[in-house]
């Protein structure tokens, strides 16, 4: 999110996120079979848990990447923890049979980095923005590039002014 332009707010409640993550699992049910999930942390943790439950997957791995260092600006990509060799060994060549899950694809930088690690894996996100959309195989909702999604784990209960008062 850039400080020099107006961004649209898209707050997502826990209920809505759960429904959207289950809808993602529903779509993915026909795209498998999958041997396991690799979730991109931290955003992929919640949808990965929901998808794993719905699809009956027990092997769940994380790839830990830091890209948003202050919640508003995407910075240099940093792999904090790579994918364990035992997980890639179970999967086919290039990650075939693995499902990569994240909450959102924005610019596609994170997805591109993980796609380089697992070029044959199936990539899925709950939400997608146009710049990152070509890197994802399955998603539920597309939002405009200038939309900032407020996920429930980042929010507390607070008053929201009406749209008519100029707040998007």
TrEMBL record:
The cofactors named for this UniProt entry are: Mg(2+)
Listed binding positions for Mg(2+) are 103
User: What residues does the Phosphoribosyltransferase domain cover?
Assistant: 14-159
Q: How is this protein positioned relative to the membrane?
A: Peripheral membrane protein
Binding, 5-phospho-alpha-D-ribose 1-diphosphate: 42-43, 102-110
> By its UniProt entry, which NCBIfam families does this protein fall under?
PRK09177.1
The name this protein carries in UniProt is: Xanthine-guanine phosphoribosyltransferase
Per the UniProt entry, what species is this protein from, by scientific name? Ancylobacter aquaticus
